[in-house]
Amino acid sequence: MAEYAQGSPRQITDIYAELRVVMVQRDQLNGDLNRVKGRIHNWLDRFFPEYIQVFKDWEGKASLLTLKKFPLPQDVADMSADEIVSVWKTEVKRAVGRKRAESLIWHAKQSIGLTEGIESVRLELKFLLEQYEMLGRQMEDLMQRIQQLLEQIPGAKEMMTVPGVGWVTVAGFLAEVGDLSSYEDGRQIIRLAGLNLKENSSGKHKGKTRITKRGRPRLRSLLFKCAMVLVAKNEQLKTLHQYLTTRPQNPLKKKQSIIAICGKIARILFCLGRKRLSYDAQKVLGSIQQKSLQNAA
């Protein structure tokens, strides 16, 4: 198989093309959702800043019901704890205690939130909550579609056997890479992500070695985010990160180590997906584990 030209986009067809489209849609939808969440936060900061002291997570069922039924401090201040709890019980199966209701009333009475333009303020929050719920439903539909597509891709299930790697990461990886059978080596994927190294030098001057950053920036970003998670959650990659940053010869800086681990993750996912193998912790560390055992002896 002729190796692809560096930096040129690899053609992704059929199911992979569809997967790539829905992953782009997911990112866009996630951005829209985060913007609406930010506007709701801003609304609370202006009109009921004490609210988050009662509901640290305003996205919970009881909190959303509160924001729909009695969002403003003056609404809450006119109610009894029993009245508030009875409203919560209409939609929240898990009991929300009377103490929470009493705390909400107390904070409402102490509130320093703005009190002007109340009716327009209610309408503003109503529209924001409607947008939030609509985007949430769209995200659920999109996630279901992504999972359906993944179930049709050979090797995807095996890729998810890596501790700390979920189906969203696998979907994002395959959306950018495409059919793994069209690659012969994991290093091709590293080049596709722009994670291969180049030396900045001219004449007799020898510059620093950096990654090329050619290829697919979305793939590079996905691998970097994945590496940041796995060095904390995956025992083998955590050990590898510690080794690379503390080894006696040529220890890497933390960011350099993360970039090296990005390449490791790309090779692992390629191998598991291409060969349809489950994750083997013993093979991840390889010679590093042997050196550690020798040093311990």
Automatic annotation (TrEMBL):
<dbReference type="InterPro" id="IPR047650">
    <property type="entry name" value="Transpos_IS110"/>
</dbReference>
<feature type="domain" description="Transposase IS116/IS110/IS902 C-terminal">
    <location>
        <begin position="157"/>
        <end position="242"/>
    </location>
</feature>
<keyword id="KW-0175">Coiled coil</keyword>
<dbReference type="GO" id="GO:0003677">
    <property type="term" value="F:DNA binding"/>
</dbReference>
<feature type="coiled-coil region">
    <location>
        <begin position="118"/>
        <end position="159"/>
    </location>
</feature>
<dbReference type="InterPro" id="IPR003346">
    <property type="entry name" value="Transposase_20"/>
</dbReference>
<dbReference type="GO" id="GO:0006313">
    <property type="term" value="P:DNA transposition"/>
</dbReference>
<dbReference type="Pfam" id="PF02371">
    <property type="entry name" value="Transposase_20"/>
</dbReference>
<protein>
    <recommendedName>
        <fullName>Transposase IS116/IS110/IS902 C-terminal domain-containing protein</fullName>
    </recommendedName>
</protein>
<dbReference type="GO" id="GO:0004803">
    <property type="term" value="F:transposase activity"/>
</dbReference>
